[in-house]
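notes to self, project folder thing:

trying the whole complex as one job this time. last attempt i did each chain seperately and stitching them together was a nightmare. three parts in total, labels are on each line so i dont mix them up again. if this works i'll redo the older ones the same way
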Amino acid sequence: MANVQVNTAEKIEATENAKVKISIIPRYCKGCEICVKLCPTQVLGMEMFLVKVVDIDKCTVCMACELRCPDFAIFVDKK
Amino acid sequence: MGTLKLLQGNEACAEGALYAGCTFFAGYPITPSTEVAEYLSRRLPLIGGAFIQMEDEIAAMGAVIGASLAGKKSLTATSGPGFSLKQENMGFGMLCEVPCVIVDVMRGGPSTGVPTGPSQSDIMQCKWGTHGDHPVICLTPGYVQEIFSETVRAFNLSERYRTPVIVAFDEIIGHMREKIEIPDKGVLEVENRKRPTCSPAEYKPFDETKGDVPPVADFFSGYRQHITGLNHHSDGFPVNAHPRIHTDEQRLIRKVEGNRKDIIRYETFMLEDAEVAIFAYGVSGRSGKNAVEQARAAGIKAGLFRPLTIWPFPEDEVAALASRVRAIVVPELSLGQIIFEVERCAKGKCRVEGIYRVDGDPITPEQIFDKIKEVK
Amino acid sequence: MSFNYDQYIRGGKLPHIWCPGCTYGIVFKSLLRAVDFLKIQKDDIALVSGIGCASRLPGYVDWNTLHTTHGRALPFATGLKLSCPDKKVMVISGDGDATAIGGNHFIHACRRNIDITTIVLNNFIYGMTGGQHSPTTPVGHLASTMPYGNVDPNFNIPDLAKGAGASWVGRGTAYHVPALDKLIIEAIQHKGMSVLEIINACPTTYGRRNKFKSATDQLLWMKDNSLPITAFDKLPPEKTAGKFPTGVLFKKEAPEYCDTYYAMVERVRKPKEGRA
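result (full assembly):
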């Protein structure tokens, strides 16, 4: 899973379970909530204006959040 | 011995561009410059070059810059109204240091003016037409042969200093036909811009550590650069509110002002012992030469200073002249523009008298001769 | 299987300039995926933009990029393309940049059918300058220069492009992302002037003034008010009223400008000489 933070060495917040790993780059997230609201299974929430994984087990790896994030701030990798 | 031809000034301009290695023209029809486009529309396809008539002069100037960024020597030609439209994109070319040549065949202005009549009233627009401080090189040929050689020189200067260069001449010379000798290939020097030799990773499109004129890569040549009309860092990316903007704009100006010796060219005629000098370029310079002859015949020591480079202005030369003569007569087809520069450089050391004419006809030698008699 | 945008983004340039909720980043990522899918070499692509929010996109991507003057991306791109006809030249523009100040260049590039992939990000507003109405702002909507409701009629960009001669016209939205990837791929592949309008959300200067509580609401508006062209054409008027069609809206075979020009060059030149 090489993505934006490889060459920019950004701090990543990763949350994972057996099925999926969700990586968030707090510095890129602008708190627009698009991913939170459009996640079909409410995996994500907001905390201090930044996206946070609230329930990873609900994730169906539909990729909606990664595809809809305008800021390269969230990545989803199926195990 | 080159090739002798009887050419119109506009055609000689096109020949000069071809000689200099121009392979891209974008333009838009406008009297009195259209013949440059027509000539190149015949010749460029024959050498595999690109000719395009765009939807307006703004587009033509944009296309010229796009082609130059692809590494092509590119030309556009226009007249007053089109020259006004091109200003913003010319400024882009100056800030982004894009070699190209803009020909302004001056006609009566302002507005639609006198399309088939001559003028020299765009000359300040050549220098200050686009907004902001910017480097300007503007050449002013007076003969069809000179239109050829000055267009070649314009391309060389634009490549040497990586900046747009203007060639400005009035309608009379643009439409006049004269004998011209087109030198064989290799006789006149033809220069190409410095391309980078460093690796793409090290390359910066505006790398001032490489000197005032940084090498520039062609688009698609492996140096994936960013060019923006915003003030920019040496790597080409936008910068605002930063001391670099000041130093960088100084570098742009210095490219021209710091190389006056190389850029400034002029012709003098019987000026050595002159007591009254004529400062005139283009068609007014031709009348001036005849006026000098009439004055000399009448025992008056007159002489002519005829600049081929009007921007950067020959300040030192005019200052020196002003300290040697009693008066400088400045005939120009406007209501007084270049005279401001002459006065600025003369600093009151001699009289400076203008002859202005904007009625669609050139200033005659007799008009100049009368003024010489008046000021001697 | 997250996508590796890293290979395309110029180091150190993120986070980008666009506002929270601005959907340009979504389109940007879609563009990167499309180019990656097509395996186009970075050296062979030029991305040209004019002025406005959308025009900042080229700065972030590791191609040959050119950020020109307002409305003039297409002429600059035409100079590039005619000089290097075998390279991929694309233009990214906004609704104002492309159809207001750039309108004359837009219709003539379409008329010529020159092979330039032209992506018009339509967020119905001039975002960069703070929310003035643009040629696509809906009538009655609010803008900083239309405080009493926009009175300007607006363009339908695909119709404009089709009427002017573009040989491929499409419309996507920032909501329908997988479909957008496909549209961008097809637009890039098409030989000739391809115009892809992409409906976008500007929460900061447009959404806020026009009763959209959030960027997501604007995205959902796109979902609820659009229909794929395939369905759009079959449904009766009352079903499509107020909705806009998405997808490939128009396509025709037409000579490409550079092909025609250089065919003329070959014809007039002596047979043995190649191109300069």
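what i see at first glance: Residues 43 and 59 of chain A are 6 Å apart (CA to CA).
need to look closer tmrw
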